[in-house]
Design goal:
The protein has a domain at about 50-150: 2-Layer Sandwich (Alpha-Beta Plaits). The chain is built from seven helices and four strands. A hairpin with a 7-residue loop joins β2 and β3. It is an alpha+beta fold and about 160 residues long.
Length: about 160
């Protein structure tokens, strides 16, 4: 086994001749690379791009008016559909009960600034009426993430 590792160690410098140290560590070509798809999805050379990751939290409004709360959260779900239709939301979902009062998450796409993300979020009735609050983070993830939505629409039986 030592001989195998020694042989690789001797051969490796010859295979990477002419490359800088950083190129030797990171330069791997993908035989499955699809340039058209990567450009369509906005991926960089690593197949990644920036999104806005939103954590939805319990808001400061503690009303017990069930009709009002139900109306706001129905509007919240309708707003999620509007965000998706506008190409602004690619992942959404609730969290189980937790000590941080985190309620769910959004991953926003095709938005260039936090200000634009905040303006979009403020159109949500549950956020606008302080039933939900949020934290926004810039997040670097796979550019292929938007491809998740067309498949996800084929696996649900009942719309929430």
């Amino acid at each position: 086994m030592k001989a195998l590792f020694l042989g690789i160690a001797i051969l490796l410098p010859q295979l990477t001749w002419g490359q800088s140290d950083s190129e030797k560590d990171t330069l791997i070509s993908n035989p499955n690379y699809d340039q058209v798809l990567a450009e369509k999805l906005g991926g960089d050379d690593y197949g990644m791009k920036s999104y806005f990751f939103v954590i939805l939290k319990t808001g400061s409004n503690t009303t017990t008016d069930k009709e009002f709360v139900n109306k706001c959260f129905r509007g919240h779900l309708e707003n999620i559909s509007r965000y998706v239709d506008a190409g602004k939301l690619i992942v959404a979902g609730p969290f189980e009960n937790n000590e941080n009062n985190y309620r769910g998450l959004f991953i926003l796409d095709n938005i260039t600034t936090k200000v634009e993300a905040k303006e979009l979020l403020e159109t949500d009735p549950a956020i606008k009426n302080d039933l939900l609050d949020y934290e926004i983070y810039t997040w670097y993830g796979s550019a292929a993430l938007p491809e998740y939505l067309p498949t996800s629409d084929k696996v649900w039986k009942r719309k929430p």
